[in-house]
Amino acid sequence: EDEPKKPCVVLSARIHPGETNASWMMKGAIDYLTGWSDGAKELRDKFVFKIVPMLNPDGVVNGNYRTGLAGVDLNRKWKAPKKDLHPSVYYMKEMMERQRDERKIILFVDLHGHSVKRNIFIYGCDAKFWSAAANHESRDEPPNLSSRLFPAQLANAAQAFSFNDCRFHVKRRKENTGRVVAWRQFTNNSYTLEASFGGADAEHAPAETHFSIADYEKLGHGLCTTILAVLSGDEKAQAEMELTLMKQVEAFVLPDDDSDGEEGDEGAKGGFSSDDDSDDDTVATIVLPPKVDKDKGKAKSKAKNTSPSRKKPEAKKATQEEAPPPPVEREARQRETPSRDALRADPSPAKGDDRCNCPSCQVYEEFIAMGRGVLTPTDAASGRKPRGEDEDEDEGRGGVSGRRQGASPHRGSPQRGQRSPLRGELKGDGASVE
After folding, report:
1. What pTM does this model have?
2. Which one from 19, 194, 217, 262 is the annotated catalytic residue?
């Protein structure tokens, strides 16, 4: 008789490209399985390992965080992957179908990173969510709480693992994830192993600090030793292990409602976890602006231009024109209002007006008073003398109107033969006398 074929263990990671800590856990598992320890040799003798260290290489190479080249989350395409758009998941599932038909798949673990919760924990599938209509014909209904035995032993093998953070709910929006599809079509032991991007809490090692690469690799080692302890024994040893672990599982009271505390659930912190996302497979929903009727838009624009706020100045102007002030009052206003020339000669307020006593205004008034005794009246806008005074002065000297005789067309440039403020006197030929 042919010997029974060894059961298969399937490990995968990096279906979400940005979850790099999953690669370090995978490295720890691969290092253990390829080592020379007695446990590694026993695992290689008893199981066939199918390992996919990077399930989304295109997303990793292109720097994506959650998606592949098709712009969709590949962990939402396990139910019906397409060969052209989701090739890695398509061929991964095809390989698992062959292994299921040729040999038994005893375990599926998909490695992820978690951006909100602390510690390292597992998402699994409880038997109470089993539905005969949604499962493969080769699958039998799993025993109650059986999916919790493997995580309970992993908590014994790895100090960073927290069983209390594990959840085993199957929600409708998670039916397309690798964890749920593998549970319904391939094996009772289907898990998503989540490692925090941060670190552990006070009850787990390393307490209140970030995980290091060595911590992630140790978890990979613990994953392999857990496979050896829970799944590789004979029937008697395995029954004893299950009985011990079941007592441990029953001692933990996990949330029994629909809120499992995962990212993406209502009331949970943060956005979405690596295992679970929104119902929509796309990364972003494009919302197009509503169509605007051009005629309606023009009418609206015309109405906006003739709004009461725009008519207000015209209405006010019309009101003023209809009721002008009396002549006596208008003449009184003109006498009270100083002329522009008067303000130019004396910009200070009139004697009868109230003056501001703040320090800034006092300094300004002192500056104006000092300037009146030194400066000649100038045009306030340009800083030059009024044009009429220059013309009269130049014409009295016999010069050209508007320009002094011999002046350079460029302002500030000394003429040849005149005194330079920097170099002293200049001869007629322009030579400098130092």
Report:
1. 0.62
2. 194
